[in-house]
Amino acid sequence: MKPRVALFLSRNTPLARWDRLGVLARETALYRHLGGQVAYSLVTSGGIAEQTYAARLGEMQILANRWGLSANVYSLLAPWLHRAALRQVDLLKTNQLDGAWTAVLAAKLHHKPVIVRAGYLWAEHFVREQGSGAKAQLISALQTWMLRAATHLVVTTVAMEAHYVAQYRIPATKVTVIPNYVDTQQFAPDPFVQKENGRLIFIGRLNAVKNLDLLIKALTGIPEAHLLLIGQGEEQSRLAELAQRLGVAVTFAGQLPHEQLPAALNRAALFVLPSRFEGHPKALIEAMACGTAVLGTDVEGIRDVIRHGKTGWLCPPTVEGLRQAIQTLLADANLRRRLGENGRQFAVAHYSLDQVAQQELALYRQLLNK
Questions:
Q1: What is the Cα–Cα distance from 42 to 40, expressed in whole angstroms?
Q2: pLDDT tens digit string along 170-215?
Q3: Are residues 240 and 274 in the same domain?
Q4: What is the DSSP code string of 134-149?
Q5: Do the Cβ atoms of 275 and 211 come closer than 8 Å?
Q6: How far, in Å, CA of 163 to CA of 174, rounded?
Q7: 107 assigned to some structural domain
């Protein structure tokens, strides 16, 4: 019989939001891939309209917020509101830490094992972005409770595992590293797409953490460079003004459907990720899978993926350091080709959807066999 798993989406990220962002297929690929071996029930804060996604999710049961409650209230009441369905599952799992308390509460109420997926350092990142006020203290307390109450933790990098074990005194036997995945058949080199010399590409949110003003400043003095920014965010207007003032060629493409990204990545000479810090960046892995040379700042999360000089290029998070790295890579097509080929091999070996799915399934079986 298939194991039955209830998957809890993040507190305020229903399926409709993933759809608007063009990432619904990417975010659900793992569970659709395992659909023949696992029966999933998906708990979402979205309303009854979430049921319209059923056809795109295979046989997955959708447990929606048909009561129209706010995301915060629903996150507390969902374990009881969906009690009939949740009593029938074997295992609970969260999508991220924000809202994971819903699954932890459900596990306690219905006496089920629960996997808490901690794909990034939620409390730590919040403090870096917004400071250490009352909300940060609440998030830190919630995170500590959830990590310790979980039956098992899933993290995306070895560095993250070490942090949780040391900082929160979590037994190492309670933590499993399962990285983010990429569909290496969809994200693959396309021999029919020609690279455009000087084209740089970034994919992600246009916010302060991504440090895109650093990238735009670094491009001054590199007239052959043209930057394509794919994504949306609160920094877009400021970045556009900065690029115009500095005379840097930047195109703001907005949010593109996920299926259009492989072609954009294949046309680029270089993918650049200049972030201040990252968790386990999916766009970086997708760029590597496409065989596009990747450049990232030497910071937490990025250095966990890129092996400098082999699968990509790392540089100091400074204007001059980033400028020198871009100039080095744009001037050497053979170096970019070698980094792209190695990056592709690395992505297939470590982050392919099939491999990650097998790790996910093995963890379910491990916990249920106990």
A1: 6
A2: 999 999 999 999 999 999 999 999 999 999 999 999 999 999 999 9
A3: yes
A4: HHHHHHHHHHHHHHHH
A5: yes
A6: 13
A7: yes
